[in-house]
Amino acid sequence: MSVLVNKDSKVIVQGFTGSEGTFHAEQMIEYGTNVVGGVTPGKGGQKHLDRPVFNTVEDAVKEAGANVSIIFVPPAFAADAIMEAADAGIKVIITITEGIPVKDMMKAKTYIQDKDLTLIGPNCPGVITPGEAKVGIMPGFVFKKGKIGIVSKSGTLTYEAADQIVKAGLGISTAIGIGGDPIIGTPTKEAVKMLMEDDETEAIVMIGEIGGNYEAEAARWIKENGNKKPVVGFIAGKTAPAGRRMGHAGAIIGGKDDTAEAKMKIMDECGIYVVQSPADIGETMKKALSK
């Protein structure tokens, strides 16, 4: 089994006919992802990229059997797009949009909390199960099939970790870019948990950033549950000054526990193989697996 997306996923693109939606839908289709259509209100009944366009997510679910959605809707309307997908019964909602107002995300997260679905993002690169489905904006050629899961707050470092793993002669089961905003659907711990429970994943790469406590929570959960699979960890932002935002909206040192050093110390104490540079991920993973 794979995590979140696979060859059986029926994917729709919300914001299908816009420039971002069009470009990345083309890339996903080219990769082999089963994109069954897209949603652009007012354009229902048309064809785009040789796929049907629907007015609503509900129509896409009824007529195309969609069960995964990827959102390229502008920030002001993206939270509504998440809630619409949730109402329509979509099981995996992947939100690429960056800059959604925090107030809107608070509303959307509260709205979906009792529903049977997984929200990834916002402000994320998406999810890829190599050779089966790419639901996101990552460069598919970097990811080769294998048994190492990746959970990352950083988009670019997701690709770097995948490249390191492949260069070490290993491959990836599923890579999950959870997103770098202060409020996201699936925190690090929940994503790690999915990969821990996945039969096809033998080890995990966990990439975090300064700010928040997601990585510490995940590390403690890994230790409490017996370190069942080797985990290699890296935290970006060692040189970031306190109080200054680094890249993502959620990447800011607010207290002593938010620093890269503090997080790496906790991870190390919890039995995670902590690396000082992303360049060491592949070789460290090889050593961890050999033990």
From TrEMBL:
Active site residues per record: H248 (tele-phosphohistidine intermediate)
One MF term in the entry's GO annotations: succinate-CoA ligase (ADP-forming) activity
GO biological process: tricarboxylic acid cycle
Keyword terms: Ligase, Nucleotide-binding, Tricarboxylic acid cycle
Highest taxon above the source species: Bacteria
InterPro entries the UniProt entry points to: Cit_synth/succinyl-CoA_lig_AS (IPR017440), Citrt_syn/SCS-alpha_CS (IPR033847), CoA-bd (IPR003781), CoA_lig_alpha (IPR005810), NAD(P)-bd_dom_sf (IPR036291), SUCC_ACL_C (IPR005811), Succinyl-CoA_synth-like (IPR016102)
Record-annotated membrane-spanning stretches: none
Reaction(s) this enzyme catalyzes, per UniProt: GTP + succinate + CoA = succinyl-CoA + GDP + phosphate; succinate + ATP + CoA = succinyl-CoA + ADP + phosphate
Residue ranges constituting the CoA-binding domain according to the UniProt record: 4-100
Residues binding substrate: Y159
EC number(s) on file: 6.2.1.5
Binding site for CoA: T17, G18, S19, E20, K43, I96, T97, E98
Keyword Hydrolase included in the entry's annotation: no
Gene Ontology CC annotations of this record: succinate-CoA ligase complex (ADP-forming)
Functional pathway: Carbohydrate metabolism; tricarboxylic acid cycle; succinate from succinyl-CoA (ligase route): step 1/1
Cleaved signal peptide residues: none
Pfam families: CoA_binding (PF02629), Ligase_CoA (PF00549)
Function summary: Succinyl-CoA synthetase functions in the citric acid cycle (TCA), coupling the hydrolysis of succinyl-CoA to the synthesis of either ATP or GTP and thus represents the only step of substrate-level phosphorylation in the TCA. The alpha subunit of the enzyme binds the substrates coenzyme A and phosphate, while succinate binding and nucleotide specificity is provided by the beta subunit.
Family, similarity comment: Belongs to the succinate/malate CoA ligase alpha subunit family.
Subunit architecture: Heterotetramer of two alpha and two beta subunits.
PANTHER family: SUCCINATE--COA LIGASE [ADP_GDP-FORMING] SUBUNIT ALPHA, MITOCHONDRIAL, SUCCINYL-COA LIGASE SUBUNIT ALPHA
The protein, known as: Succinate--CoA ligase [ADP-forming] subunit alpha
Gene of this entry: sucD
